[in-house]
């Protein structure tokens, strides 16, 4: 009889806990959107370019620029965990090879990319011609470009994020940096 009372007491206690936990209708969570606010971009001439480098351009003031002696640069976005890598090559009768290398760099991502959109760039007044590539999907880079004057100068750039590629997650930051890359292309001046 004592065992039966203990079991009955435990069952009654469990029933009370179950009833106490049912306090109203279950309501689904409202839909939410991730909101990422980035500062309005302000551009100024890239600082600390060595005098022997044959180009100049404007860069977002919120980015950190690291210039190397071989005229390559890293434009870092610490809050977005991304870097634009720029590499300069002089043209010495090898423009076709430089163009092939730039296109090859882009199309190596075709395995992971959903699509690659090419956007030609022409600025005849400054003798700047090039191509901007938008890479859709979970590729390692989602934007690349090259600019050249076809006779002396060749500059190639690509952006990389320090995270596993997930296109949906990095989309706001990627769009912000793509605008900066276009600004670089638009403001390149050869020396």
Tell me about this structure.
The structure is a single chain. By secondary structure, this protein is α+β, with helices and mostly antiparallel strands. It is built from 3 helices and 11 strands. It has helices spanning 2-21, 95-107, 167-187, and strands at residues 43-45, 55-56, 58-60, 64-67, 73-77, 82-90, 113-123, 128-137, 143-148, 153-161, 189-190. Strands 4-5-6-10-9-8-7 form a 7-stranded antiparallel sheet, sandwiched between helices. A two-stranded antiparallel sheet has the order 1-3. It is elongated and about 100 Å long.
Which descriptors would you attach to this protein?
two-stranded antiparallel ribbon; single chain; alpha+beta; seven-stranded antiparallel sheet; 191 residues
Query: How is the main sheet built?
Result: 7 strands, antiparallel
Helix content: 25-40%
Shape, per Cα inertia axes: elongated
Mean pLDDT across all residues, rounded? 85
| Computed structural class | alpha+beta
Q: Into which percentage range does the β-strand content fall?
A: 25-35%
Gap between N and C termini, in Å?
A: 100 Å
Radius of gyration, CA atoms, in whole angstroms:
27 Å
Spatial strand arrangement across the major sheet = 4-5-6-10-9-8-7
| Number of helical stretches of at least 4 residues | 3
> Uncertain segments of ≥5 residues (pLDDT<50)?
none
Topology, number of strands: 11
Return the string of H and E elements. HEEEEEEHEEEEHE
